[in-house]
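During the practical work, I selected for study one protein's amino acid sequence and its C-alpha cells, as given directly below:
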Amino acid sequence: MEKRLLLIGLDREALKTALAASGVPAKSLPMRVNQLWNWIYVHGARDFAAMTNLAKDFRGLLEQNFSLDRPEVVTAQLSEDGTRKWLLKTGAGIEFETVYIPEADRGTLCVSSQVGCTLTCRFCHTGTQKLVRNLNPDEILGQILIAKDTLEDWPSTAPGRKVTNIVMMGMGEPLYNFDHVKSALAIAMDGDAIAMSKRRVTLSTAGVVPMIPRAGNEIGSSLAISLHAVTDEIRDQIVPINKKYPIAELMEACRTYPGASNARRITFEYVMLKGVNDSLADARALVKLVAGIPAKINLIPFNAWPGAPYECSDWSQIEKFAEIVNKAGYASPVRTPRGRDIMAACGQLKSESVKERASARLAAEKLADVQSGQLARMPH
C-alpha cells in the first residue's frame, strides 16, 4: 500500500493540488479545501471519521489517500509548577522537544524548529547537541496540535484558549530553517486556522543578521534577540555566531526591523551568568546598546544542566541589574524559572535519544546491508 500523504503543513494551494490528484472534481475543490482547513486547524480533527458534515464516500477517499498523523509522543512530563514538556518523534533519530508554560494571564508554547542546533551557545544545553536536521512544517505545526490536543484547547477560535502565545524559542535557530518556519507560522497565524495573533507569536534568533529583515517582511511576527552580552569579546565566547555578525550589525538590524514600535517592542533576552555578564557596568552598557530601539529586556536566571560551564548570578545581583535597566525606562522582567525539575526551563532542552537512536539506526542499516549481501551470495 502506498504511503498516505500527510495533509498537516500543506498550504491551501498544495492541499488543493493533492485533492485534485486524488480525484476530487475541480468545481468542488475550493469548498473541500475550506472544509478540511476548518476541520484540521479550527477543530483539531485527528481522523477523517470525525468530519461528520462530509459525505461518507468523500471521507472514504480521504482515508484512503491522506493522513492527519501527529508526531509520536515519546514522553510527556508534567512539572510540579504546571509546566509540560513533550519529547516527540517523527522517525528514527528524529526527536525534538516542546514546552508549555501556563501562567495566570497566558499560556505560552515554546516550539522547536530543528533537531539539535548548529550554534553551540555555551550556556545552552541544546547547543551541545549537533544538528540532525531542520524540522518540516508538519513537524513544527504538529507541536502546536499535540499541545492543543493534550490541553483540550479546541476549537482554536473559542474564547478562553489555553495556548495564547507561541514562541519559536525551542531547540534550534529558526532563521536557519526560514522557509519551513515561515510556512508553519503562516498557518498558525491564519485567522481561519489556528488563529494566533501576530503580536502573540514571537520568533527568537541568536542573531542571523541577514535574515532578520526577511523575518519582519515575510513572517511578520514579534522578534526576540538572544543577546546575553554587551561586548563582542564576551558575546564571541558565549554566542559564537557573534564572530560572524557582531553586536553593531545586530543592533542595526533591530533598529530597522519592519513593524517595530512602542506597541510592538523587540525583546532582548539576557541570561544572567555569574561573573561573566552580570556586572552593573554591563547593565549600564546594555541600556546604551538598546537606546533608540523600542525594546523590552528579559533577564533570565541561568538554568543549570549537567556539565554546564556557568553558574547563575546571585539573586541580589540580578535585582541590582534589573533596577538599572528599569530606571532607564525599559521593562525588564526577571523571568521566573519554570519546569526546572523536568529540564524544561530556558536553555535546558535537548533530545538525548537522538544520537543513540541515530547510531542504532546506522547499526541496523549496516546489519541489513551485510545480511543482504549474504543473501545475494546464496545459491538460488
Q: What stands out?
A: Confidence is low (pLDDT under 50) at residues 353-380. The two ends are 28 Å apart (CA to CA).
